[in-house]
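pasting for ref
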Amino acid sequence: MLALIRRYRELILVAALLLIPLGVYLAHAKDPGERSRVDRVVLAITSPLERLLSWSITGVVRGWYGYVALRGSHARALDLNAQVIALRIENERLRQQQLENDRLRRLLGLAEATPERRWTSARVIGVAMGPAGFQTVTLDRGSGDGVERRMAVVVADGVVGRVRAVTAHTAEVLLVLEPLEETA
């Protein structure tokens, strides 16, 4: 008999490995009230093994999703950070354009409100402290553009100064500064 078992041990092992899951399946398929004593013994023997296998498989799956699946996440995070920085720069550029558009609209409204006057637009190209500590700015328009000495310099919010000196292509403007209110 022992020689027969040794001779067919692989076949017996395969048969056992196929019959055990079949027996467990049949025992689980029955309603709890219909289970026989054999079914209950099979379930009592196999339930710790099922728990161990379930715990092992769950651990492997969690390990996969917790570590292995995150292998490219660092590169993706760096890419997303670069995109966020680019979007912030674009947002700031658009905000500056919006502020410039608002200023130009106010200036356009000022020019339309007083059509009888002659207006010239200019950009500030320099800032300095003038004589006696007064602040001056240099504009990119001069006598060639119709700017004359003692002309008022106006923005949409009001008068900011007057032209102090003029060259062919620049004008130096002495700014009107509001005096600081002293608190006692």
